[in-house]
Amino acid sequence: MIISSSSILFSKNSHARNKTKKIKPTYGGTLVWGTANPPTRINPVLTSHSVSSALLALIFDALVRIDSNGDVVPGLAESWDISEDGLLYTFHLNQNVRFHDGKELTAEDIKFTYDLINDPKNNSHWRTNTELIDNWKVLNKYTIQLTLIKPFPQILRKLIREIIPKHLFDNKNLHTNFYNYNPIGSGPFRFKSWNKETDQIELIANLNYFERRPYLDNIIIKTYADAAKLWIALMKEEVDFVKFISRRDFLVLDKDAFFKTYRIPLEMYYAILYNPQDPIFHDKELRKAIAHGINKQEIMKAINMYGAESTGPFHPKSIGFNPDVKPLEYNPYKARMMLMHRRWRDVYTGSVPKNRVEAYGGSDTHGGEYGIRRKGAQDLELKLLVDATSEMKVRMAIAIRQNLAHIGIKTTFLRYHNISELTPEYLKKHKPQAWLRRFQAFKSETSHSAKDWYSSSTEFGKLWHYKNETVDLLFQQARTMQNQNESAKIYQHIHKIIYADQPACFLFFPTSFHAVTANLKNTDAFFNIYMPGRTIKDWYIAN
Question: What is the pTM of this model?
Answer without folding.
Answer: 0.76
